[in-house]
Design a protein that fits this description.
There is one protein chain. The chain is α/β, with parallel strands linked by helices and 283 residues long. It is 40% helix and 22% strand. The chain has a domain of 196 residues: Rossmann fold (3-Layer(aba) Sandwich), CATH 3.40.50. The strands form two sheets. A six-stranded mixed beta sheet has the order 6-7-8-3-9-10, sandwiched between helices. A four-stranded antiparallel beta sheet has the order 2-1-4-5, with helices on one face. Helix 1 packs antiparallel against helix 4, helix 3 crosses helix 4 and helix 7 crosses helix 8. The longest helix is centred in the C-terminal third of the chain and has 24 residues. The chain is globular. It binds adenosine-5'-diphosphate and magnesium ion. The site of magnesium ion has 3 residues, from helix 2.
Length: 283
């Protein structure tokens, strides 16, 4: 079933990326000594220790770590939504100074506009960018088809399931043709079956568009299913404790023995890191 979805996805994706608008290929990301301490009124909360990370153009990198270790903070910094306390982020040749359409951030809760239907949610960024009406309608339709939502163009957010909402969010993100997708536990709130399907679809979309993806999850198997590399973070203040290069052939199957074994190895490292750091912080 997942294989079937993956195959269909690859066909749809092949059609979509044959169009010129979809050629927003990935650019490299370079994170140099980025650290972050939040300052509350009278408290300082160190969220991230200095992070050094290079992500290749078109690479799929998964960040794995315990809750509160600074994963969302790092993604926000790369997105340009949150300033770092120090260090720098480079997207291609340019230093990140704020948000830009070369990078989009997707969250667990698809941040859609409830007063717009699916079509107009997907068109939103294109309209902001000044794309003429007919053209943006056509682009939106292509990406709605890409995420298997053809026929739901006129539906409103409250009429959609969680999985469908994430599909709309993904279509909206892809429509503006970013080079980098920043995904913060995008499938974390979905049921297992929907999550498996969306994982397979995302892998197919990534394979065809060659976008650079930085993907946060706390699901180890999801990380192994999707990532070229999986980076394991320590508890807060987060730092990268281990890096795994995942060499399994694609498309990957969640129930594949090699994948399950790799996930078990990574889970053990995650637990060890949590205990080591937890001891140090007296948790
Ligand atoms: P994760 O995504 O890995 O679960 P976060 O990046 O959301 O972790 O948070 C890391 C730490 O920074 C947490 O302890 C959190 O409470 C703190 N934090 C996050 N955002 C803020 C903020 N705006 N102000 C103060 N503390 C924050
Ligand atoms: Mg988070």
């Amino acid at each position: 079933m997942v294989d079937q979805t993956a195959r269909e996805s690859r066909q749809v994706v092949a059609r979509a990326v044959a169009e010129p608008q979809a050629k927003g290929e990935g650019i490299p990301l370079r994170i140099v000594g980025v650290h972050k301490t939040f300052a509350d009124r009278d408290r300082r909360i160190p969220a991230l220790q200095p992070i050094d990370l290079e992500v290749g153009a078109g690479e799929f990198v998964c960040l794995l770590g315990p809750s509160g270790c600074g994963k969302s903070t790092l993604l926000s910094i790369v997105a340009g939504l949150e300033p770092a306390s120090g260090g720098s982020v480079w997207a291609g040749e340019r230093e990140v100074r704020g948000t830009d359409t070369d990078r989009v951030l997707l969250f667990q809760e698809a941040a859609l506009f409830p007063w717009l239907d699916v079509q107009h949610n997907v068109e939103f960024g294109l309209r902001q960018a000044g794309m003429p009406r007919a053209e943006r309608a056509a682009v939106a339709r292509r990406f709605i088809d890409l995420v298997h939502l053809g026929g739901f163009e006129r539906s409103y957010v409250h009429q959609l399931s969680g999985g469908m909402r994430q599909r709309v969010a993904l279509a909206r993100a892809l429509a503006i043709n970013p080079a980098v997708l920043l995904m913060d536990e995008p499938f974390g709130a979905l049921d297992a079956l929907t999550r498996d399907r969306l994982q397979a679809e995302l892998e197919a979309i990534w394979a065809a568009t060659r976008k650079t993806i930085l993907f946060v999850t706390h699901n180890v198997r999801e990380a192994v299913a999707l990532g070229d590399r999986v980076l394991v973070f320590s508890p807060r203040p987060g730092r990268i404790v281990r890096e795994f290069r995942i060499r399994l052939p694609r498309p990957r199957r969640l129930e594949d023995h090699a994948l399950v074994d790799q996930a078990a190895e990574i889970l053990a490292v995650l637990h060890a890191a949590a205990e080591m750091e937890g001891g140090r912080h007296g948790r």
